[in-house]
Design brief:
16 helices, Beta-Lactamase
């Protein structure tokens, strides 16, 4: 019986011994820390469970003054619970407080055996301000990064959603890409083809196995390998690109393609590229350019022909005017016509001098629908004849002449306008 009691007591004694040893070490450390408390530049305060201050060093004066307990030597009420908690739990507790723009960290260390708590203060203002500054800088950087990547995220949003769905349902996405009408590549940053779909195999004549053992430079027919490497680095920087190129098919044919690619830094860096055959489009563009050049040449030739026609028209006009001046006018001038009939001769001379004028044509094409008599009067008014002279030459009354003039102004749209009929007709 006694042996059993001895055996069961041994572990307890050993545990107690270890606890005593550890507490002794703690006591020794605390005693070592408290050897020179008065010289400690940071506050050191010792209080009992009821809040009575047993000791404080000189550096604690600022705290005690702020708390208003320099005289009472009693810790403020709101710290009494912390003292009680650390003594009951046997665990340290840290409390922060602000004093005159300074942030003080108070560490409550329980000395359970003695029934009191040591409070060690430390000014952490600079460290706290630095942490706050770092936090603000981090927030600013995060906002900057967010703003700079927002547009890229918007641009790549659809592709990223496709990739996410691809990761969640890889088999279904691979089937979609494999059977898509547009060609698809998955390429690493060295330019090696990792995935291709059936559309690209059908376009180039290569099998999937052949292409997966090839690089971009093996099918690229526009860029050199060095230019392709530079292009890859540029896309990594920008995140995406859309460009035209040429690819070499298995049978040696060169096709024009349009490539839309996006770069994502996953799995060491991947390019997701969609490729569209634009060979027929390029042929059409080439044909249009050739037709445009042909039309330009025809336009040049037509301009030369029109220029020549204008020269010939001017020559004909000059000939008509010269013949009228040199042949008809002298004959008319030799006619010895007197009286009112001479007015007709003078009118005929003026008309011959303006024989190439478009005056008559413009009047008939103006939409005014002038009668032959009104056209005749227009010619006389334009050449300076008065109403009285027109009435005598046409053997009509002065009132009839005036009515004709009014109708002409009405048809020409110049009634109630401050412009003479003679001046208006001369501008036609």
């Amino acid at each position: 019986m006694s042996n059993e009691k001895q055996t069961s007591a041994e572990p307890i004694s050993e545990a107690t011994r270890r606890d005593i040893t550890e507490r002794s070490k703690v006591d020794e450390e605390i005693k070592g820390l408290a050897k020179f408390p008065s010289e400690n530049p940071n506050p050191v305060i010792r209080v009992l469970a009821d809040g009575k201050i047993l000791y404080h060093n000189k550096a604690s004066t600022l705290l005690l003054d702020f708390w208003g307990c320099q005289t009472t030597k009693i810790l403020p009420d709101h710290y009494l619970k912390t003292v009680s908690d650390v003594l009951s739990l046997g665990l340290n507790s840290v409390v922060k407080t602000e004093i005159n723009d300074h942030i003080i960290s108070l560490t409550f260390v329980p000395i359970i055996e003695e029934g009191y708590v040591n409070i060690y203060g430390m000014d952490i203002t600079e460290r706290t301000r630095a942490d706050e500054n770092i936090l603000r800088v981090n927030e600013s950087l995060e906002n900057l990064v967010f703003e700079r990547t927002r547009k890229l995220k918007e641009y790549n949003g659809k592709l990223l959603r496709e990739i996410t769905r691809h990761e969640l349902a890889k088999e279904r996405s691979e089937t979609i890409l494999r059977t898509a009408l547009d060609c698809f590549w998955l390429v690493d940053i060295q330019g090696k083809l990792l995935e291709v779909n059936d559309a690209y195999c059908n376009l180039t004549g290569y099998s999937s196995e052949e292409l997966l053992n090839m690089c971009i430079s093996d099918v690229e027919a526009l860029e050199t390998p060095e230019e392709t490497k530079e292009h890859i680095q540029q896309i990594i920087k920008t995140g995406s690109d859309r460009f035209e190129s040429k690819h070499r098919c298995k049978d040696g044919r060169i096709i024009y393609v349009e490539v839309s690619t996006n770069y994502l830094g996953i799995e060491g860096g991947r390019f997701f590229s969609f490729i569209r055959d634009i060979t027929e489009q390029k042929k059409s563009e080439t044909l249009l350019l050739e037709q445009k050049k042909s039309l330009e040449l025809k336009n040049i030739a037509l301009s030369e022909i029109l220029g020549q026609i204008e020269i010939e028209k001017k020559q004909i006009k000059d000939n008509v005017i010269a013949n009228a001046q040199n042949l008809l006018v002298p004959v008319i001038q030799k006619l010895r016509i007197t009286g009112e009939s001479r007015k007709y001769v003078q009118l005929l001379q003026r008309n011959l001098q303006e024989i190439t004028s478009s005056f008559g044509t413009k009047l008939t094409e103006s939409g005014a629908k002038l009668t032959p008599r009104e056209l005749e009067i227009c010619n006389m008014v334009k050449n300076g004849l008065t109403n009285k002279e027109i009435a005598k030459l046409l053997n009509i009354s002065l009132g009839t002449t005036e009515r004709h003039r009014f109708n002409i102004r009405r048809k020409l749209g110049i009634v109630n306008k401050d412009i003479s009929l003679s001046h208006y007709l001369k501008t036609i």
